[in-house]
Amino acid sequence: MAKNIVLSCKLASSLVVLSLFLLTAFSCSKAEVKGMFVFGSSLVDNGNNNFLKNSTAKANYSPYGIDFPLGPSGRFSNGRNTIDVLGELLHLPGFLPPFADPRTQGAEILHGVNFASGGSGILDETGSLAGEVLSLNQQIWNFENKTLPDLKAQLRGRGDDGFSDGFLSEYLFVIGTGGNDYLLNYFVPGQTQKPSLLQFTQLLVSQLTRQLKKLYDVGARKFVLFSIQPIGCIPVVRANLPVSNGSCIEQLNEAALLFNDDLKALATNLKLLLPGSNLVFVNSYHIMRAFIDEPLSYGFSDGSTACCELPSQAPEAILCKRGGMVCSNRTAHVFFDGLHPTDAVNFKIAQKAYNSCLLEDAYPSNVKQLAQL
């Protein structure tokens, strides 16, 4: 299959030279999916934590959303996250609603729902440092027991010609999680007993496999798995770990790569476990590491520091200071706060996920090809 993808990409390049008409016909066709259901952490959360009373992981204040049409919305970015951009590329109507918003029901859910929760992880205990979060298990439960019955009722009530027992195969199921299981769990200082890094990673992957199977069992067939980003290069790590000396902490990056290798393998192995399913692995780590290591080559000038002001009284803080200062040129920064990318980076990641022909970006196909299956 990989050879076919490479060949199709070479063909597309040739068509660009031969004819603008053919480029339009073969490369700009509209993706055919009804919508997306999104699960994961703050990198893909679009406001669920706003509705969690005891959560300390919220981005519902300025300067978050400074470049977003709705202002501060709960997205951990100055503008869009990768899910917003992916939705635009898939021609979905509007932004996905967050599950926790009481208004997310009825006709509002026809094109998908975002269940992600900032601070959450694959393991239930991950995220306790952020107070109240919706774990991945809880997110999947919310989909299966709340949203899915409502969606079925909506489609039947509308007499949807495409409604059938396999209707969920027309939706993408997007998962972006895992980083917090290392940052807010495994590598938290003061733990006296913990498994080896290999054992912990195997635990995460086996748990995630079970969670994906739960979604498969209720009808999910098209999965998009985002890798962990270079967690050893985020500003809060670079600035506050003495051993970093301003450099990336490769021990953390090695943990991310260990997980990502297993996640990529799932894109192939799960097809055997889940017949009829198709998975795309988006290598956010590879994409972002290039921006961090060689920012000037990709249109950035700063690949290491936060664009927004972080609370000085909390050096380990990840989130922007409420009402704090913000850099004037957000498009020049890789990171907006102590962990999360800027709108410009999210756009590039989503764009590569959607239509890159490089297997090191999206494997074994891209999201556009997945959507058209």
UniProtKB/TrEMBL annotation:
Any Gene Ontology biological process: lipid catabolic process
Transmembrane intervals: none
Keyword Endoplasmic reticulum: no
Species of origin: Vanilla planifolia (Vanilla)
Domain of life (superkingdom): Eukaryota
Lineage: Eukaryota, Viridiplantae, Streptophyta, Embryophyta, Tracheophyta
One Pfam family hit: Lipase_GDSL
Entry's Gene Ontology cellular component terms: extracellular region
MF terms in GO: hydrolase activity, acting on ester bonds
Assigned protein family: Belongs to the 'GDSL' lipolytic enzyme family.
InterPro entries, A to Z: GDSL, GDSL_esterase/lipase, SGNH_hydro_sf, SGNH_plant_lipase-like
Keywords, ordered alphabetically: Hydrolase, Lipid degradation, Lipid metabolism, Secreted, Signal
Name of the featured protein: GDSL esterase/lipase
Cleavable signal peptide: 1-31
Localization annotation: Secreted
